[in-house]
TrEMBL record:
Organism: Salirhabdus euzebyi
InterPro entries linked to this entry: NAD(P)-bd_dom, NAD(P)-bd_dom_sf
Pfam families according to UniProt: NAD_binding_10 (PF13460)
Protein name, as recorded: Uncharacterized protein YbjT (DUF2867 family)
Top-rank lineage group of the source organism: Bacteria
UniProt cross-references to PANTHER family, sorted A to Z: FLAVIN REDUCTASE-RELATED, UPF0659 PROTEIN YMR090W
UniProt domain NAD(P)-binding: residue ranges: 7-190
C-alpha cells in the first residue's frame, strides 16, 4: 500500500514516513516543498514529489497518481500570519481533498486540531482562532465528500519520545501527546477499515495504539 504524505517535512510527517518505510508492507511518497528537503526521505528509500501546496490542484493530483491513500499533515506553523493559515491549513487542505478525487484516491486521513467545533472557535484566543477556523472548514469539507476519511484530532503536541500508548475517543480530556505517537496513530489508521468515516481526539494515555484504534 502506497501513501502520499502531504507535509512530509513536518515533524509528524517525518515520523510517519519512517514508520511506513520501516513497516515492510507499506511504502511512502513524501510530498515536499523543495528538492533540498529530499535527502531525509531518500535515505529511508521513500519516493518524493516536489509540490507547492499553494500551487495548483492538478500538481497535487499528479503527485497522488498511483497511491492508495493520502495523509494531510501539512501546517502553516505557529509563527506565520493569518494569510498563511488560510493558504495552507484551509485552502491547501481543500485542494488536496479535491486532488484526491481527481486521482481517484479514496482513502484520506486528515490531521486536524484538537477541537474544531464552533464553540472552540468562539472560545479560542484571538491569535489562535484563525487556525481553528481554517481547520473547522477543512474538516467540514472533507466530511461532505464520499472519500473514505478519518480525521485525527491530536492534543497539545510535544517532541517527547513516543510511548506507543494513547487515549483515543470522540471526546477525551485535554492533554498532550508526542508527535511520534500521533504519527504512529496515523500509520495505524492507514490500513484500518474500522476508522473509516470516523474522527477522534487523541492524547497520551494507558492504552496501546492498536487497541485504542480498534475501539474507535
Amino acid at each position: 500500500m502506497k501513501t502520499l504524505v502531504v507535509g512530509a517535512n513536518g515533524q509528524i510527517g517525518k515520523h510517519l514516513v519512517k514508520f511506513i518505510q520501516n513497516s515492510g508492507s507499506h511504502t511512502a511518497k513524501a510530498m515536499i516543498r523543495s528538492k533540498e528537503q529530499a535527502g531525509y526521505f531518500e535515505e529511508l528509500g521513500a519516493e518524493t514529489a516536489v509540490v507547492d501546496l499553494e500551487g495548483e490542484i492538478e500538481d497535487i493530483a499528479k503527485a497522488a497518481e498511483g497511491v492508495d491513500a493520502i495523509v494531510f499533515t501539512a501546517g502553516s506553523g505557529p509563527h506565520t500570519g493569518k494569510d498563511k493559515t488560510i493558504m495552507v491549513d484551509l485552502d491547501g487542505a481543500v485542494k488536496t481533498i479535491e486532488a484526491a478525487k481527481i486521482a481517484n484516491v479514496k482513502r484520506f486521513i486528515m490531521v486536524s486540531s484538537f477541537d474544531t467545533s464552533r464553540q472552540a472557535i468562539q472560545s479560542a484566543p484571538p491569535g489562535f482562532a484563525p487556525y481553528v477556523v481554517a481547520k473547522h472548514y477543512a474538516d467540514e469539507w472533507l466530511r461532505r465528500t464520499d472519500l473514505e476519511y478519518t480525521i485525527v484530532h491530536p492534543g497539545a503536541l510535544t517532541n517527547d519520545a513516543g510511548t506507543g500508548q494513547v487515549e483515543a475517543a470522540v471526546e477525551v480530556e485535554r492533554g498532550s501527546v508526542p508527535r511520534e505517537d500521533v504519527a504512529n496513530v496515523i500509520f495505524g489508521c492507514i490500513g484500518s477499515a474500522t476508522t473509516i468515516g470516523k474522527e477522534f481526539q487523541v492524547v497520551s494515555g494507558p492504552t496501546s495504539i492498536r487497541e485504542a484504534l480498534q475501539k474507535i
